[in-house]
Write a structure and sequence with these properties.
The structure holds 2 protein chains of 2 kinds. Chain A is an alpha+beta fold. Chain A has 17 helices and 21 strands. Chain A folds into 4 domains: 95 residues, STAS domain (Transcription Regulator spoIIAA, 2-Layer Sandwich), CATH 3.30.750; 67 residues, Phosphorylase Kinase, domain 1; 148 residues, no CATH class; 132 residues, 2-Layer Sandwich (Heat Shock Protein 90), CATH 3.30.565.10. Chain B is 41% helix and 35% strand. Chain B is globular. Chain B starts with a strand and ends with a helix. Classes of the chains: A alpha+beta, B alpha/beta.
Chain lengths: 525, 99
């Protein structure tokens, strides 16, 4: 059977090809190729059982006359021969796809592009939504390999199979359980799950990817923002787009679909799977998609998360807040809220676009859901001025009430250092005096934010704390020191705070730059 | 944050402070002192459990000292090392009677 296309000749090989029938086989092939000199050739090996070296020599001769030669439907046995003899390096050899049924199989994961089922004790198959998924499968394999080489524990598919009309890729995953499953069945393991989940997240985010190896998530986020912008009031839409545009390029890895269904516990090893969305970019893009998974998608219909993750919204939200706190290495609620709001900007932008593209505007429920997300997005856009964040920087409203939040944040940054109680108290004192000054005077009669940055240097160990506000220009160091020898009756009530800061810190500096009061305190430890 | 224990006996008021005396907690102590010092000739502030003091706390001590200068005496007991250091830096060791 031969199919003569304009430029491709397909020839079916069947049974066994060895020295006894090689000459006839070659003759048959030559006849079919006559008149198609130099055209591309596909050898359909789906019913080929065996091929000996005599048969391989025929293939070599065809390859010489027809350099564009492909073998398809190759069985595992024949593939092994081709692989051993180096033929797989010389030409395109496509293996026959094993057919796998997922009937009655447990669903263990679900991502943007496919669903993962356990097919037996040791193996899982990821079935792709897209019927024409071979390129996607190839992509996922490549990026999973890259991740593995860069030190991220993951599973790499070893086989491509047919599942109904779709393609699937098979992974070995021995007795693994997803974190979603653990959370659903063993609520007391929540804190352990958070720890492992964040450990893996930090590992991914600290992995530097060679330039150009992975797609840039910012490009995707920009396309979401351009789409969603059209459905927002003009000013808010423009702000949204400029916020995403201002996120700096980052060559660190992000997973792109990081949630507890994609984290697997195999023995005592934690693996991250579903790597097809692997990208590079700023962590805020990751956090945006995490916010959606653990709550955003369920804000209107609270059952979404239960169907998807197997645990309820309260569990999802608790997990998200604990994970964010651990990721940011702080229990300071203001810091957690600051970063959560930035993540939500990305999250809502993505969900609104996704829902509208899936005809969300055409149903009452869909419209209500989009409206809810939109209202949250608009209210956050009013006070968020950047989507970037830093673990050693807190932006907080300068009010007296927020003092303990600032103290918590600063103290946690110093936890790892061996501060003497005296130095600890002096730092706390300085933080209080400076922050309370800003809270009391900088923005009178209105309100505004202060930024507190904590930097630690080694050798010698010192800590530098910087306070920034955009209030009235004021140099607290310019004031004369109070007379500390005066009697109680003659003592002035003010000025003591700044004086103590000067006395207890090793270096205190003030500058006014770009409309900002910048006060820097340095303490050697 | 800040715990205050107050006992008054025969014109002597004893305030035992525990915790932190900062911008947030100082107003509580200030208010309590203002309400409690009528007829008091000896005020004792026991700082055994006090871990932290900022300028807001110093100001409360200063105004209490000013008041007590008019009607009797004020003593500070059991200030820990860190707090003593603050008293020294600010010259409060000269104003307060520290025992």
């Amino acid at each position: 059977m031969t199919d003569h296309n304009s430029d491709i000749v397909t020839i079916l090989l069947s049974g066994r090809i060895d020295s006894t029938n090689a000459p006839q086989t070659e003759k048959m092939i030559q006849e079919k190729l006559s008149g198609h000199e130099g055209s591309a050739v596909v050898l359909d090996a789906s019913s080929l059982e065996y091929i000996s070296s005599a048969g391989l020599r025929i293939i070599l001769r065809i390859k010489k006359a027809h350099p564009d030669l492909t073998l398809t439907g190759v069985s595992s046995e024949v593939y092994e021969i081709l692989d051993m003899t180096g033929f797989t390096e010389m030409m395109t050899v496509e293996k026959a796809y094993r057919v796998v049924s997922i009937e009655g199989c447990e669903e263990i994961g679900r991502g943007a592009n496919g669903t993962i089922y356990r097919i037996d004790k040791d193996n899982v198959v990821k079935v792709y939504n897209n019927a024409d998924a071979l390129a996607d499968i190839q992509h996922e394999r490549e990026v999973a390999k890259l991740a593995l080489i860069l030190g991220i524990p993951t599973a790499i598919s070893y086989d491509v199979v047919k599942v109904g009309n779709s393609y699937g890729s098979v992974f070995e995953l021995l007795n693994a359980r997803s974190f979603s499953k653990i959370l659903a069945s063993e609520p007391d393991k929540l804190d352990w799950c958070v720890d492992e989940f964040v450990k893996m997240l930090k590992k991914i985010h600290s992995t530097l990817v060679p330039s150009g190896k992975l797609p840039d998530m910012k490009e995707k986020a920009l396309s979401w923002a351009r789409f969603t912008k059209e459905y927002l009031p003009a000013e808010a839409g423009a702000k949204l787009l400029s916020l995403v545009e201002a996120v700096p390029h980052d060559d660190h890895m992000i997973h792109g679909d990081y949630h507890t269904k994609n984290l697997e516990l195999q023995g005592d090893e934690v693996l991250i799977i579903d790597m097809d969305t692997l990208s590079v970019g700023h962590p805020v893009f990751e956090l945006g998609s995490m916010f959606n998974s653990f709550g955003g998608y369920s804000e209107w219909d609270h059952n979404v998360i239960l169907k998807f993750q197997g645990f309820d919204l309260a569990t999802g939200q608790a997990f998200w807040h604990k994970a964010l706190s651990a990721y940011l290495e702080t229990s300071c609620q203001a810091k957690i809220r600051e970063v959560e709001d930035k993540a939500r900007v990305i999250g809502y932008t993505r969900m609104i676009r996704r829902s509208i593209r899936r005809h969300g505007l055409e149903t009452e429920d869909g419209r209500a859901e989009i409206e809810l997300w939109k209202s949250h997005l608009l209210s956050i856009l009013e006070h968020v001025d950047t989507l970037t964040f830093s673990l050693n920087e807190l932006e907080i409203e300068a009010t007296t009430d927020n003092l303990s939040e600032v103290q918590t944040f600063v103290n946690e940054r110093l936890d790892a250092l061996d501060c003497s109680p005296k130095a600890q108290m002096q730092i706390e004192l300085a933080v209080e005096e400076v922050f309370i000054n800003i809270a009391s005077y900088a923005y009178l009669p209105g309100k505004g934010n202060a930024t507190v940055r904590v930097e630690v240097t080694e050798n010698p160990v010192s800590v530098t704390i910087t306070f920034i506000d955009r209030g009235v220009p004021y140099d607290p160091l310019a004031k004369d020191d109070p007379d500390v020898t005066a009697s109680a009756e003659n003592r002035a009530i003010g000025g003591l705070g700044v004086f103590m800061v000067k006395k207890t810190m090793d270096d205190v500096a003030y500058e006014y730059r770009d409309g900002q009061n910048i006060l820097t305190l340095k303490k050697n430890l | 944050m800040l715990n205050i224990q107050k006992t008054t006996e025969n014109g002597t008021a004893l305030f035992t402070l525990e915790g932190r005396l900062d911008t947030i907690t100082s107003p509580t102590l200030e208010k309590l002192l203002r309400e409690s010092l009528d007829g008091v000739s000896t005020l004792i502030l026991d700082l055994q459990g006090l871990e932290y003091i900022s300028s807001a706390g110093l100001r409360v001590f200063l105004s209490a000292q000013k008041l007590m200068n008019k009607q009797g005496t004020m003593e500070i007991h059991h200030a820990n090392e860190s707090i003593m250091e603050i008293f020294e830096v600010t010259g409060f060791t000269e104003i307060l009677t520290i025992k």
